[in-house]
Amino acid sequence: MSSPAATVLAGLRVNEARYFKNKYGHVFTVEPVSNAGPTIDWVSRILTEERGIVISARPLEATAFQVENIRMAYVFYENGLSINVMYTVDDLGKRAVGFKLSDGMEIPAELASFKFA
Questions:
Q1: CA distance linking residue 35 with residue 32, whole number of Å
Q2: What ranges do the domains of the chain cover?
């Protein structure tokens, strides 16, 4: 991964990996952007069409998987941002989009209207 936020992004991935392993027994792995085009395109389309958001940072890695009845996708960006999309398979009307900022990261302009903890 080539990013000034590589270390903090690694921390985000480790936290996600721990969560999915402990809760679902799922091994959380990511693919480089060169292999993850469909996942990145899908997340970008949801952000653009459903939320009116276009992320300016370059995506670096992504993953898509299903645990129980929940379909998940994650995209990690060079600026330290992580975006996930999840929806239930049996009720496609329930979908959530999550944004995580790496420690010390400035809020990107396209997300300035959001409140981050």
A1: 6
A2: 6-111
